[in-house]
Amino acid sequence: MAILWHYLESVFSFNPDSPLLFTQFQFWAFFAIIFAGFSLLRNRRLLRNSYLFFISVLFYYKTSGLFFGLLLLVTCSDFIIAQLIYRCKTRPTKRLFLILSIIIDLSILCYFKYAYFFADLVNSVCGTSFQVTNILAAEGNRLLGQNFFNVDRIILPVGISFYTFQIISYTADVYRGLVKPVRNLLDFGFYVSFFPQLVAGPIVKASDFIPQLYRKYCLSRTLFGMAVFWILNGLLKKIILSDYLAVNFIDRVFDNPMLFSGFENLMALFAYSLQVYADFSGYTDIAIGLSLLMGFHLPRNFNSPYKAPNCSNFWKRWHISLSRWLQNYLYIPLGGNRNATFGTYFWILTITFVALILSGNPYVALSVLALAVIVVTVGLRCPDRRKKIWANLNSMITMLLGGLWHGASCNFLIWGGLNGTGMIIYKFWRDFRPAVRMLWSLFILLIVGILYTFAPSPLWNLMLVFMIFITASTIIRWLYTWSGMNWHMEWLGHAWAVGVTFVFITFTRLFFRSGSNLDPAIANETAWRIATEMVNQMGTAWNANISDIIQAYYKVFALFVLGMIIHWLPENWKRRYRIAFAKMPLSLMAVSVVITVFIAYQFVTAEMQPFIYFQF
């Protein structure tokens, strides 16, 4: 009994060095105990929801310690404010309560996530040397009368970006009249804190999830099989494709890019594209499976994103819940494709100011501002193009702010800007005739070639290679059109577009990965150094024997190729083997589970790695 009690204490107590991860046996022991209690209450709605709410708070405590108080704070404040919004009769009063809710939620998020970012801006503008101090920790120490909390550093609570955006969407939907406020605080707390998706999404809309709170528990034989499939699928993605690739290759290269050849740096970057997908979608798969076991349905968050033939389509497939949130609660309020609002101009000036501070170069800020002024002027003077210009301008602002949502540093801003640029270029590119596309490709290739000739650098080396491939594809397409031949090999053109998009998205991840897992105080400088070193290596250092590198990392490269092949399988094939697994006899399914778990854990070579999106 003493041994059992000690184990249960380790399962339910908080250990900052051992957060509760889906890939740990400790989590599955935790879930087995929780699910046993849930099975007794599954048909008693109020008790079931209340039970899962308290369990979710306990799970968050296991993951983030005393930060569960923040979760309870925003839950209570938005529950009350939503009730006030619903009861108000006048639109201006409703709007004031909505603004109050957003201020509370974003203030907490900004304090924990952007304190270092804002301190750097103030110090750069005012010439001050302010140091970030954890005011809440200092106040807590004062109240407790001892140095219980660390005041020298602000620690980011796990999942704060996700549940903040989810709770903002709820209050905004109540304001818009799309949903009625939840009348029971425990039910609302359950919606906000549902533990499978609490710390890394997907971001669930109230209109999709709240009706499920009042339904009877239902788990058919097929749904049970599908839940088991998604859990196993997520574990395989996380342990084999994500952790193994990271520990045995990717992390080594990103930690010291100059110690590796250009080929190794390039392969580490491509492998990271697979890693971040397998890591994030693996978490989502497990969350969907766990939710199905408890009778709840979460929205799909990924749809084979590396099958996208362009950047716009990629963001309809990648992190779908965030993309929809940004569209509904940022892009459309900015004006969408209708017009430019005050928010549009405000963010143009703000982003210009941030570019000035982060770059330290007034020419960069002037270039950003001049470009924005030109775009706005053309939009105002050309009514026939206005709609498209406003749409692209608001889209770029949305992507930049989406980048900052991921992290408060320059590299995430660049990453968001590159994705926005790719989306806008595609929208113009698709409207061009093949001949015009060919001419533009030749012109850009000429410019890159001139820059490479007069100012050779590793970056222009990479750009030159990329533009040669783009130009070759446009010339081939133009020849088919000019000769009057039909494009019989349309699948080849689609595959080429998918490949080009994958390469572009992968290179934008250079900024995403190089700034991840860094102390906020040094994120900008370190991220830029890592990105620069990797570009230098990829653009120049190709003197190593590639066959020897492939032989040395053959397991890593084989897993990468296998992962991409599975990712690119037709959707109907994937649907068939999912359904086939779900309809297996229970005995055969149990054997499959044991074999799958055994195989997965053969790839565990170090301590369990936390999910990448926990840091956001």
Instruction: Compute the number of helices.
Output: 25
Tell me the series of helices and strands, N- to C-terminal.
HHHHHHHHHHHHHHHHHHHHHHHHH
The largest sheet, given as strand count, sense and whether it forms a barrel, is: none
Number of distinct beta strands: 0
Roughly what fraction of the amino acids lie in strands? under 5%
Radius of gyration from CA coordinates: 26 Å
Which whole number gives the mean pLDDT?
81
N-to-C terminal Cα separation, in Å?
40 Å
Poorly predicted tracts of residues: none
Supply the helix-strand structural class: mainly alpha
Global morphology = globular
Helicity level, as a percent range? over 70%
Protein architecture, described:
- The protein has 616 residues and is mainly alpha-helical.
- Helix 11 (262-293) packs across helix 20 (490-514), helix 11 (262-293) crosses helix 21 (523-540) and helix 19 packs across helix 21.
- It is globular.
- It is built from 25 helices and no strands.
- The model has no long low-confidence stretch (mean pLDDT 81).
- The protein starts with a helix and ends in a 15-residue tail after the last helix.
- Helix content is 74%, strand content 0%.
Task: Set out the fold topology.
Elements: H1 2-12, H2 25-41, H3 45-64, H4 68-87, H5 91-126, H6 135-144, H7 160-176, H8 185-193, H9 206-209, H10 221-255, H11 262-293, H12 311-317, H13 320-334, H14 342-359, H15 362-381, H16 383-406, H17 410-429, H18 434-454, H19 458-482, H20 490-514, H21 523-540, H22 546-552, H23 554-567, H24 571-582, H25 586-601
Helix pairs in contact: 3-8, 4-5, 4-7, 4-8, 5-7, 10-11, 10-23, 10-24, 10-25, 11-20, 11-21, 13-16, 14-15, 14-16, 15-16, 16-17, 17-20, 18-19, 19-21, 20-21
